[in-house]
Amino acid sequence: MESIELKEKEFNVFACSNCGGELKYKPGTTTLVCDHCNTKNEIPQEKTIIEELDFNDYLEKSESESLGLEKMIQCKSCGATSSINESIKSFHCPYCSTPLVEEDIREERVIKPSYLLPFNLDTPKVYNLLSSWVDGLWWAPNNLKKAALSPIGLRGIYVPYWTFDVNTHTMYTGERGENYKVTTGSGDNERTQIKTRWYDTAGNVSIFFDDIMVPASGSIDPSSLAQLGPWDVNALVKVNDQYLSGFVTEKYKIKLKESFQSIKGLIDNNITKKIYNDIGGDDQRINSVNTQYSNIHFKHILLPVYVSSYHYDGKIYHFYVNGRNGKMIGKRPYSTTKIALAILIVFLILIIVILL
Q: Residues 291-325, buried b or exposed e (16+ Cβ, 10 A)?
């Protein structure tokens, strides 16, 4: 696994006014609940107005304004780095379940996220989903279910994303092909051919790209995160430490500038399609393209994912659950014992059939 950077939430510990215990966010609600006495504290609600940040201005001037100092702890097994609260003396890596110890803490500056989607499913519901899913994996090892549902193996993680808004204006030159038919020969030898006349063309196209989402995790494969979507980003709320209480918050590994560069391919593909449409005709050729990007804005958001880790035959397997709607994906191991037994049974059946 690549080196990954996380920050463990609990940014702040919220003490219960009744017993002094720790309050944690209860998924699907707007309350913090005490594990000890069940006291509930309402999280203050306010209307969320999404504000995009200017990309170029941020890179040049404003980055330092959004940096915060966090205490980090690194997993010696997989390289994951998480920030933790002073009150936590030890916990487990959310990606490989290795115990982490206080002696490995260091300080690091991180860019603060602005918005998040709160968890909507609690762990009992996720346990039920995982249990049903694992029951359907016929060739999985027998102890997969026990491991997948381990309290240590299952963690709720806020996964970091960047989103981008971009205006593009593209000037191009190209050729428009218009087909025509040519008939040659006569009688039985008569043939019709399709030929193309090409005409020089030039023009310009403009496209506005709204909320292109780029996972910044570095620890979860982007294709896996894509399968967990789509996300109800219309329900984003401002980041509030109370929503983060009791969960892990992963620190972005894919940086802002790098993330924007990664969407250039997606943008270029859409521009190319629009140019072809703009050229028209029966066929098109593009000779030159000059694209200008303007009004680039972004926001840093967190999305809720449950992760379950399972060790089998020297490898780590992960199961992911969308913390909003319960959608689940994962790569599971195959039990060599079960497969070998099945082959043996089939072989014995064939022998019996032949003998009869």
A: bebeebbbbbbbbbbbbbbbebeeebbbbbbbbbe
Reduced DSSP (H G I as helix, E B as strand, rest coil) percent helix, strand, coil of the chain, to 5: 25, 40, 35
Q: Which two tokens stand for residue 260?
A: 């924007």
What single DSSP character describes residue 28?
T
DSSP per-residue string spanning 233-246:
GGG-EE--HHHHTT
**How would you class 271 by CB atoms within 10 Å of its CB: exposed for 0-12, middle for 13-18, buried for 19 or more?**
buried
What is the reported pTM? 0.78
Beta bridge partners of 214: 162
- Token readout for 85 is 């609260």
Angle (CA) 73-77-80 rounded to 5° is: 40
Bridge-based pairing state of the strands 99-101 and 90-92: antiparallel
User: What number of helices (H) and strands (E) belong to the chain?
Assistant: 8, 19
Residue 146 pLDDT > 70, yes or no?
A: no
Nearest-angstrom CA–CA distance, 232 and 11 = 25
CB 238 within 8 A of CB 115: yes
Percent of the chain with pLDDT over 70: 71
The token pair that represents 275 in the structure block: 């140019």
Query: pLDDT digits over 88-145, tens only?
Result: 444 666 666 666 655 666 666 667 889 999 999 998 888 888 777 666 555 556 555 5
Average pLDDT over residues 291-308: 94
